[in-house]
Write a structure and sequence with these properties.
heterodimer; A: 395 residues; alpha/beta; Peroxisomal Thiolase, Chain A, domain 1; 9-stranded mixed β-sheet; two-stranded antiparallel ribbon; B: 478 residues; alpha+beta; OB fold (Dihydrolipoamide Acetyltransferase, E2P); 20 strands; 25% helix; 28% strand; globular
């Protein structure tokens, strides 16, 4: 990263779940002020904000534009920009908040990710969106699980593993999520439950899919200089990048392999170079990655270079990616347990990393975690946001 | 001067893979039925059935290299107002500076379309004409018509010269006003009529009169005819007419049901497939009167039987469609949650017509990458110019797939698949006429033209993947 060094000094996150009691605005307010409290800051100190919301259509206009955040938190006349970059909207909002500080324009910014999906039924939100939207006939029939299931089928064909490999991911992430007070699902499941769950989009069953969830998360960004002066703990932003690739017509293109996502690979190459990471497993202590579906975690682990693809199911079963494993992945329970309020997820991942780096992740804590990585995917590998943070001050 | 030899250059059928077991249908009502009938899949209509046959017929005729007239015959056109022949032409590649005709309403349209095509060629108005027919007629659950009708399509390319495989050598017709099986413009289904009255006083006499007129026109007697196609929508009339003429009646290899306007073309092709050069086939269609032609198999046929081969298509009608699923496919077992109306656009459909109907794409002149959908910047090498137009191949193997129940469908599941097309290129769309357990990576698939949905209030057609027909067929568990 060039320019001013940037740090995170406070994070906030609502309880994720079916928040029937709360509006989009309620969620955004809750996350914003929790982050400010965490940073011992007043809203008046924040100079500009970036908002990540992907589907304002399901929240009656909440998240429709920057002002939809400015108004309920009382931020005017200061600027708020809405970022919509699919499922990576939250982390891209964070990236923009980082860039603004890095450029020297602002000293303190905030990124807020907020999504209200459950004011309508699950079938009325994402499923209806896939049925209604996009090209009238090309790729018609696609659903969110259906996009990723194409990779699952191809991986299983290529590497010869079965649905048991997927069940290992569900088992691990639900076990982690049971320890996470902010998660949507807080119950462990057995591998058999995962395998026997109703089929959604083969080979993905119900417990291979993240739920439809409401939630918001917020991150306070400032200069490293300010952080050093005012905090005994903070996290330096070693890298914050975004990579793009093919979008909805990707499956029509000859070179797409349905094994990995180029956008993730490209974002990892750039982030690792910026953060001087040559051996991610050794140099990174804790990883949050985008497990919208169990197969996605397997794909991402390969794309991020955390294990060779062939070995991932075996390593997963052996506990390699557990909280106390060699390479802890999704200690929060991931999207599988936390849920995936689309625009909130990227900020929620940073919230989890900071808790790990500041030694306050409770039962989820990875001993001695110092460097963390969060990976927020958008579309079926159409884009990838990656953040690498280094904790300062705890040890 | 009219060309001396006018007739069929090639032909093809599109027969659904599914059939109804009429014993199962009978058990739902009066318990009296047996046999079977072909039923279209939920995404097939009269136009897709006609268009699929038309495309195959044109390809067998060696493609389209000159303006070609398009004639569509159907009693089940998807639109009440507007023509559907142009949809068939768009798929078959016969749009452009040439006429089209549509013979709707009566089943005699199948024979009439053939005559109209031959007349246009004889008059020198066009050198070639594509004749296509498709039927997917609505029948009320429990009605006789539900067990009588069959769905399917057939098409022939008509032209002149040495390539003619079946010359049109005789013609005859009768017009008669009588109450025939009908559906009112305000009703959904064909109504019951006095069948005995119709059969004895109108249908059989008209068909026999038209047949005799055609034979006389050809200078033939019934004994000179190898076989007769009697497309009457009434199996008893077919027998009656055959017996009275003293000519063996052509029947499909498996019972398909009464196929309306498509039946005379389909069965004429079936008869020609086995005909000896010089043999005559009588083709009689009905419809408030009747119309008949005599076809003479030429010497060229002996070397080109594959250009009229329909037996494999007929035999592919090999999978039972459970009656309840048939009812769902037709929207007769109503489930509003199965209806999808995606965002659609008249402007987009017009703009992308060549891609939507003809699978037209681009190929990059710099790196050879196929661009489908068409795009301005090559996805592989970034080139912005030097593209050539190409048409995607329609066969390939399944690269990956998923079967799900979230996307609404009247079928058991929506299966999405990515095909690796033979040569190069990928295609991503729904699979059709397949059950999830029958699908596997690597299986052979083909692109078929289907009705996707009625988003925007109009018919949105596109291509789906279908497992390549296995000659043996596979029986679906009911």
């Amino acid at each position: 990263m060039s320019g001013t060094e940037v740090a995170v000094v406070g994070v906030g996150c609502t309880k994720f779940g079916e928040r029937f009691d709360s509006s989009w605005e309620d969620l955004a307010v809750e996350a914003t002020f929790e982050a400010l409290d965490d940073a011992s800051m007043d809203l008046g100190q924040v100079e500009a904000a970036w908002l990540g919301t992907t589907f304002p259509g399901t929240s009656f206009g909440g998240g429709e534009s920057g002002v939809s955040l400015a108004d309920p938190i009382g931020f005017g006349p200061r600027p708020v920009t809405r970022v919509e970059n699919q499922c990576a909207s939250g982390m891209d909002a964070f990236r923009n908040a980082v860039l603004a500080v890095q450029s020297g324009e602002y000293e303190v910014t905030i990124a807020v990710g907020a999504e209200k999906l459950r004011d309508v039924s699950p079938r009325g939100s994402l499923v209806a969106g896939a049925v209604k939207a996009f090209h009238p006939v090309r790729g018609k029939g696609v659903t969110a699980p259906g996009m990723f299931a194409l990779l699952a089928t191809r991986q299983m064909h290529e590497f010869g593993f079965g649905r048991e490999a997927l069940a290992e991911v569900a088992y691990k992430n639900h076990r982690n999520g049971a320890k996470n007070p902010k998660a949507h699902f807080r119950a462990e499941i057995t591998r058999e439950q995962a395998l026997n769950a109703p089929m959604m989009s083969s080979p993905l069953g119900l417990l291979d899919c993240c739920p439809t969830t409401d939630g918001a998360a917020a991150v306070i960004v400032t200069t490293q200089e300010y952080a050093e002066k005012h905090y005994d703990r903070y996290a330096v932003v070693r890298s914050s990048v975004l990579a793009t690739n093919f979008w909805v017509d990707g499956p029509y293109l000859q070179d797409v392999d349905f094994i990995g996502f180029r956008a993730t690979q490209d974002s990892a190459a750039k982030a690792y170079a910026e953060a001087d990471i040559t051996d991610p497993v050794k140099q990174i202590d804790v990883v949050e990655t985008h497990d919208c579906f169990t197969i996605t975690e397997i794909v991402n682990i390969g794309d991020l270079g955390l294990a060779s693809r062939q070995d991932i199911p075996k390593l997963m079963a052996e506990g390699w990616f557990d909280i106390d494993g060699e390479m802890p992945v999704n200690t929060s329970g991931g999207l599988q347990s936390c849920g995936h309020p689309i625009g909130a997820t990227g900020c929620r991942m940073i919230y989890q990393l900071c808790n790990q780096l500041w030694d306050r992740a409770g039962e989820m804590q990875v001993d001695g975690a110092k460097v963390g990585m969060a990976h927020n995917l958008g579309g079926p590998g159409a884009l990838s946001a990656l953040t690498i943070l280094e904790g300062v001050g705890v040890r | 001067m009219a060309p001396d030899r006018i007739g069929i250059l090639a032909g093809a059928a599109s027969v659904p893979t599914g059939y109804l077991d009429l014993a199962e249908v009978g058990r739902a009502y009066d318990g009296s039925s047996k046999g079977r009938r072909a039923v279209a899949h939920f995404d097939e209509d009269a136009v897709t059935l006609a268009a699929s046959a038309a495309l195959a017929a044109v390809e067998r005729a060696g493609g389209v290299d000159e303006p070609t007239m398009t004639v569509l015959a159907t009693t089940a056109a998807p639109y009440k107002v507007r023509a559907s022949a142009s949809i068939v032409a768009a798929v078959a590649g016969t749009t452009g500076p040439a006429p089209s005709r549509e013979l709707a309403g009566g089943a005699r349209g199948g024979v009439a379309a053939l005559v109209a095509a031959a007349d246009a060629v004889a008059a020198g108005r066009v050198r070639r004409a594509l004749v296509a027919a498709g039927e997917r007629r609505p029948a009320e659950p429990g009605s006789d018509w539900e067990r009588t009708y069959g769905d399917g399509g057939a098409a022939v390319v008509v032209g002149s010269g040495d390539g003619v495989l079946a010359e049109l050598v005789g013609w005859g017709a009768v017009t008669d006003e009588v109450v025939e099986p009908f559906a009112l413009d305000t009703g959904s289904f064909a109504q019951p009529i006095d069948m005995s009255l119709w059969r004895k006083t109108a249908l059989a006499p008209s068909m026999i009169a038209a047949a005799n007129a055609a034979l006389a026109d050809a200078g033939l007697a019934p004994k000179d005819v190898a076989g007769a196609v009697v497309a009457s929508d009434d199996p008893r009339t077919a027998k009656l007419v055959g017996a009275q003429l003293g000519v063996p009646v052509v029947a499909p290899d498996v019972p398909l049901g009464a196929m309306g306007a498509a039946e005379p073309l389909l069965l004429a092709l079936r008869a020609l497939e086995d005909a000896d050069p010089g043999a005559h086939v009588l083709v009689v269609g009905f419809g408030n009167g009747a119309e008949a032609v005599v076809l003479r198999a030429t010497e060229a046929l002996a070397q080109a039987r594959t250009r009229v081969a329909v037996t494999a298509d007929i035999k592919a009608n090999s999978r039972t469609l459970p009656y309840t699923r048939y009812l769902r496919h037709r929207g007769l077992l109503a489930a509003e949650s199965e209806v999808v109306e995606p965002l659609a656009s008249q402007a987009l459909t017009a703009r992308e017509a060549a891609s939507l109907y003809r699978l037209e794409g681009l190929v990059c002149g710099k790196c050879d990458a196929i661009q489908f959908p068409k795009r301005a910047v090559c996805w592989r090498c970034g080139a912005r110019e030097g593209f050539d137009t190409t048409t995607l191949g329609r066969t390939g193997s399944l690269f990956t797939y998923t079967a799900g129940t979230l996307y609404p469908t009247p079928d058991v599941a929506t299966i999405m698949g990515v095909a690796q097309l033979d040569g190069e290129g990928r295609f991503y769309t729904q699979l059709t006429e397949a059950l999830p357990e029958e699908v596997s990576v690597g299986m052979q698939v083909e692109l078929v033209f289907r009705l996707m949905h009625r988003g925007g209030g109009f018919n949105n057609y596109f291509w789906k993947l279908r497992p390549v027909k296995d000659a043996a067929g596979s029986e679906e568990a009911a």
